[in-house]
Design a protein that fits this description.
Layout lengths: L5 E5 L2 H5 L7 E2 H7 L2 E6 L3 E7 L2 E5 L5 E3 L5 E8 L5 E5 L3 E2 H9 L8 E15 L11 H5 L4 E16 L10 E8 L5 E18 L2 E5 L5 H5 L4 H11 L1
Parallel strand pairs: 1-14
Antiparallel strand pairs: 1-7, 2-7, 3-4, 3-7, 4-5, 5-6, 8-13, 9-13, 10-11, 10-13, 11-12, 12-13
Length: 236
């Protein structure tokens, strides 16, 4: 019998937008649920990249290090990645061209894991700065986030495609993070140009949403979906 492939997500981007930034799940717990993923640490601290079962953190200075597993994440999404379809990129393409090729191969109504490996002529990322209580709105943080760019870098993009129906739980469309092969550069992907590489995709049969049930702020705060939906579109 085939193993059910699923996306496991702790917390929501909607909660993050509503200033719910406390860390509520250990990285070690997320690694039990998957070997490829993304997220952010407590206080919306930097960018989390999970690749081949290893959790990397990119801080606001752009430095990359491996996490111990004891750190807490505010939001994270992972899957046990098994590629279902692949296709090569054999000439220079910008991010919109690559995304459109991916969309042509996916259902608009399923979550999908995305892994893009190769040589990038250009990579443009951002890294959210760590916040302290009382937490500001995430969209305000995003307006002042550090951005980094590099050229001719080998590395991997990991992330997910989310159907429009689930905007709020995550961001509708693509949510992608990058890490270089030498583990010195990474972050939340804003834009890129891919010189050559390979795209691997996995459509997911199930979405498992885990809530921070021990976080009193999450339990008590009412989230204005109309407001946070617009904030997600701006920030992501």
């Amino acid at each position: 019998m085939n193993t059910l492939n699923y996306l496991y997500q702790h917390g929501t981007l909607g909660g993050l937008m509503a200033s719910l930034m406390d860390g509520t799940v250990a990285i070690s717990d997320m690694l039990q649920q998957g070997d490829l993923g993304i997220g952010t640490l407590s206080g919306s601290n930097g960018e989390l990249v999970i690749l081949d079962g290893v959790a990397y953190h990119v801080n606001e200075e752009g430095n990359v290090h491996i996490l111990t597993g004891q750190e807490l994440a505010t939001y994270s999404a992972v899957t046990k990645f098994v590629q279902q379809q692949t296709f090569p990129i054999d000439r220079l393409k910008d991010s919109q061209e690559v995304k459109q090729e991916i969309l042509d191969k996916l259902s608009p109504n399923l979550f999908a894991a995305v892994k893009i490996t190769g040589t990038f002529q250009h990579m443009h990322v951002r890294v959210v700065q760590k916040q302290e209580k009382p937490y500001p709105k995430f969209v305000e943080v995003a307006r002042h986030q550090p951005e980094f760019e590099t050229n001719d870098v080998k590395g991997t993009i990991v992330g997910f495609f989310t159907p429009s129906l689930f905007h709020g739980a995550s961001v509708a469309g693509f949510h992608l993070h990058f890490i270089s092969d030498d583990r010195t550069f990474g972050g939340h992907v804003l834009d890129f140009k891919l010189s050559e590489g390979k795209v691997a995709l996995e459509e997911l049969e199930e979405f498992r949403q885990h809530f921070p049930i021990n976080d009193q702020d999450f339990l008590e705060q009412e989230i204005d979906f109309d407001s946070i939906s617009k904030d997600i579109e701006e920030a992501e």
